[in-house]
Amino acid sequence: MTVTPALVPYWRYGDRMSLALYVNEDAACSNATIEQQSPAWEVKDILYGDTGINYQADLELAASASVQNNGTLYAHAVFTRNGYGKHPKEDNYDADNVAVVTWPLTYYVRYRKPDHVKKLVEFPHKGSGVELTAEEISARDQQRALREARESEMDGKLVSYWYPNLTLAIVDSGMELYPYSSEPPVVHKWIKLADVRGKDPQSHLTYMKPIFFVNDFWRLQSHMSLINETTSALPLHVQVSSLSLWKFRVFCSMDHSAKQQEQGLFGEDLGSSGMDEMKRMLADTNPVLLAITFIVTLLHSLFDFLAFKNDKQDTVGVSIRTMLMNVAFEAVILLYLFDNRGNTSYMILISNTVSVVIEGWKVVRAVDLQAVPAYEAMTEEESSTREYDQIAYKYLSYVAYPLLLVYAIYSLFTQEQRSWYSFVLSVLVGYVYTFGFMMMIPQLYINYRLKSVAHMPWRTFAYKALSTFIDDLFSWVMKMPWLHRLATLRDDVVFVVYLYQRWIYRVDHSRANEYGQVGKETQAEIKTDALESDAAEPKKDK
């Protein structure tokens, strides 16, 4: 059939229709299914064109042996215009007045072996305090070994999962000519044509049935459950609602993009954790807050770039140890995220990898990492900075290391871990999140001993203030652990102390700040003094 650039709606607004939902293991809805099988759910007198359509039902489906062993279960939604039959054996049957939508209810996902956690140091006792016997301990360990062996065998294989929601949308496509030729292919698959020319060969129009769309965009992997031989019943929530044409186009495009994002450059399965996180953010976040999140993300990147665009050439007034600790902390966080990559999106992993690279780049730009032949090469201010830096870290270590030891012991006996490697990373990350503000204290101590803070031009100072504010806003808009939120407040404390130091030491504009910046007017004064000194020396020789 030749398709014209525009389609004419065959069903009219005001027509009424019925829905019969069939569930079986057939990939296509046959006439025998409609004729012989009883529908799992029916809805009568649905008004076509009604923008407030909303029908819901909760069903419980039986899981056959085939479905329990990776079989596929399908839903067949049969929409019939009132006054017509559903299958050919009925006298008033007309294929153009029947629309069928088939959709799989089971999804195949690569099984990921779960990370089993346990206490690394555990005393053999029951919950009541009674010690376990040797036989009980052996039986428990055997059950655990059998379970882990089966999970290892399934790891990486495609297995069936159940998603307990089915959302059917009746698209409000309007009564005007539908612009079929201008629609993308992802939309075409939902458009069913009516074979009116078979009845009227003289007709030059191409008609279309109503658009019935299965909205699967909000399906999250965390909402799906594994189907196995112990699964006896499958709960299903069905909803039929209306959907505007522009939303239909948006959902089609977004769903297509999401499926593409789950596949790598060479077709490998990258999983859906990243897209699931994006969907969760879209579903759980107020649209206004979502817009704010997008804007502050862009502003944060902009202000970071503007604040770091000018780096200094020496190490006067800058705590090199603090900068190195920054790199170490970012590296620990990155290793922790990779260790928990099953629950971490690729976007977060890439973002934190970039953070580690940037922190390393800051160290390279702030100080020449090549070996210095002797301490004479340092200026007096640089030597003082090194001395105060060592003093600050000396006293800070008296507090930091005992805290780390106490936190490690507490985690070892109270928290469950996957392995000793995970335990070490979790302890270090918890320490970084909780006590990370200490790495900024040496810089504050250096400022105090030098009785000076680096001069920051008013524009850059504004960038830092805005960046700190955006960090606070971002932490409460985005979903993240509470420890990470507290870490943003930690930066506020340091920033307030820095503001106080800038106020009491505001006379000195010659030392660089933590971003490696010095005042332009100070640089000009230094150059002028140097020129005057060079000009005065020949006169002294005379």
UniProtKB/TrEMBL annotation:
| Superkingdom classification of source | Eukaryota
Record carries keyword Nucleotide-binding:
no
Q: Which InterPro entries match?
A: CLPTM1
Membrane topology label: Multi-pass membrane protein
Q: Which GO terms describe its cellular component?
A: endomembrane system; membrane
Provide the protein's localization. Answer: Membrane
Q: Does the keyword NAD apply?
A: no
Looking up Pfam families in the UniProt record yields: CLPTM1
Transmembrane stretches in the record are 288-308, 320-338, 395-413, 419-441
Q: Which UniProt keywords apply?
A: Membrane, Transmembrane, Transmembrane helix
Instruction: Report the principal subcellular site.
Output: membrane
Q: Which family does it belong to?
A: Belongs to the CLPTM1 family.
Q: What is this protein called?
A: Cleft lip and palate transmembrane 1
